[in-house]
Design a protein that fits this description.
6 strands; 2 helices; 13% helix; alpha/beta; six-stranded mixed beta sheet; Metallo-beta-lactamase, Chain A
């Protein structure tokens, strides 16, 4: 088995939220395991560096205000990354039910799970 781990930035960009995850402190990670690429975004918003992330099979993107992305930011990030499968996470009480409909034309398999 061949496994590669890449660190990618994770931070907040919205005014008034940078203190939660300041730029340069936190990371997300891309794991490549025998060619399968899995992106764990960490606690982040839809940052410009996501445009560099390519060929993702499975993405885990956070959606929880005020700490991570809004649902709109998550949809934008998913359209940028274009994973085959998307798992929104860290959403707490945030309503993520509309994400699937907003990505239907992107051919992204959105899988919403209730984590406890």
């Amino acid at each position: 088995m061949i496994c590669l781990v890449e660190a990618v930035p994770a931070y907040n960009t919205t005014e008034g939220r940078q203190q939660f995850h300041p730029k340069g402190r936190d990371n997300g990670y891309i794991l490549t395991i025998d060619g399968l690429r899995i992106y764990f975004a960490g606690d982040t918003e839809d940052i410009p560096e996501m445009a560099e992330i390519k060929d993702i099979d499975i993405a885990f993107l956070p959606c929880n205000q005020p700490y991570t992305m809004t649902t709109e930011q998550l949809v934008k990030a998913a359209k940028t990354i274009k994973p085959k499968v998307l798992f929104p996470y860290h959403y707490g009480q945030t309503d993520v039910s509309m994400i699937q409909a907003q990505l239907i034309n992107e051919r992204i398999d959105v899988r919403i799970r209730h984590y406890e």
